[in-house]
Design brief:
With 202 residues, the chain is an alpha+beta fold. The chain has two domains: 136 residues, no CATH class; 56 residues, no CATH class. 41% of the residues lie in helices and 17% in strands. The chain has seven helices and seven strands. It is globular, with a radius of gyration of 18 Å. The two termini are 15 Å apart. InterPro entries: DUF3226 (IPR024508).
Length: 202
């Protein structure tokens, strides 16, 4: 997750190499692994892969693992998402005391990473105002899932907020080519729950 990597770099001073390791999971999917010495961030590419990641990537190295942090989206049902994570932990047979969990956006409300990011953008942002009109038009024409609309809105912000000079895809909108894009302000209070979780876990 790019935001987690960004927080680790800014708050924990962990500098990750640009190269990303790929590891097979569930036979067909690949996860991205960012490593800096003995610190790892594993992007499991969706909640459905959590159990496989715990069993096939983390469990074999459990003896040398001090702590595990799981960050996933709460989506439309916070409790259901939490239960799903707890079941994966139980089924993995990894000791529960080694694992801490956080559900975006703030570990108490429904939503996802995009919900968190959008909540930190200043009110009255011109690009967001334009997209709000676009979103209203889309919703009048057809039923579109909120998650998809939020992803589109974040994409619009990261691509066009710097007047077209830097066209960042969302995953590159934190640090791009070792340079802070300045698109996101970690001092915004909406980021605090996630930052506190990362700092307390690692």
């Amino acid at each position: 997750m790019s935001l987690v990597k960004y927080i680790c770099q800014k708050r924990l001073r962990i500098k990750f190499p640009n190269s990303v390791k790929k590891s097979p999971i569930a036979k067909v999917n690949l996860v991205d692994i960012h490593q800096c010495e003995d610190f790892y961030i594993i992007d499991i590419k969706g909640q459905d892969n959590l159990l496989h990641a715990l069993k096939t990537i983390i469990a074999p190295f459990l003896r040398g693992t001090e702590r595990i942090g799981i960050i996933q989206d709460a989506d439309n049902d916070f409790n259901a998402s939490k239960v799903s994570i707890e079941k994966a932990i139980t089924d993995s047979e990894i000791p529960r005391e080694k694992i801490q969990c956080f559900l975006t956006p703030n570990n108490k409300d429904i939503g996802d990473l995009e919900t968190l990011l959008l909540s930190t953008i200043a009110k009255g942002n011109k690009i967001m105002s334009c997209f709000d009109d676009y979103k209203t038009c889309l919703q009048e024409q057809q039923t579109i899932h909120t998650k998809a609309l939020n992803k589109g809105q974040v994409y619009a912000y990261t691509m066009y907020s710097q007047q077209g000079e830097n066209l960042y895809k969302p995953q590159d909108s934190f640090i791009h080519k070792d340079i802070d894009t300045k698109l996101w302000d970690l001092d915004n209070k909406k980021f605090k729950p996630l930052i506190d979780f990362i700092l307390s876990t690692f």
